[in-house]
Task: structure prediction
Amino acid sequence: MSELAERRWHEFTTPEALARSFAARIGEALSRAVESRGEALLAVSGGKTPVKLFQALAEVAIAWEKVTITLVDERFAPPSSDRSNERLARENLLRHKAAKARFVGLYHPAPTIEGAAKEASAGVAGLPYPFDFVVLGMGDDGHTASFFPDATTLPVLLDPEQRGTILPVHAASAGEPRLTFSLARLVAGKHIALHIQGGEKKATLEAALAGKGGHPMPIRSIFEHSGKPVEIFWAS
Result:
């Protein structure tokens, strides 16, 4: 098995305490990026877990006008849908102080998810890579980004040499087709952090990193290929 990245755990008793600390951590990293290169690039994940984090981050006082925010992955659903990660980010993160940030979404209307992925790749081509901070989540099945265990192209999605930027995803467990940044783009980020809550998620992560469960869970690939410590923000 590949050597795994160092894990740096940050544990909290409440989601609110986690959100405040994590938001401050992200703000510090983005501020350092702005100071060193004049701009910063942040990638965030969707789902229910990051809502409190987004709300706390929106209140952090940094030079948001020099920050670009995009999504780690997106459902093939327009921003008007309550399934949209873009909608979640706009309603909870792109407000208050963070309203000054530039946002680049991944959803594009197209006949197929493959066509949408091509348009999304073009849309993010000019972003100031590498990411200064990548915020990842994890599902109960060990998926992160849209790297689902039952994805029809999972070997492609988890290939660190994959040259594509935004990849299309078909997975029955996902509910609808997805768009996701490639593993290579994500693990090239300067700072990578995983945001999880609850005992079950912690147990799932520990099992994935221990190589238990027969087939490797997708989250393990982040730790295999990051080449740098991965921070874990967890609340009970």
User: Anything to note?
Assistant: Residues 27-235 form a domain with the Rossmann fold fold (CATH 3.40.50.1360). Residues 31 and 62 are 6 Å apart (CA to CA). The mean pLDDT is 97. The longest helix spans residues 15-37.
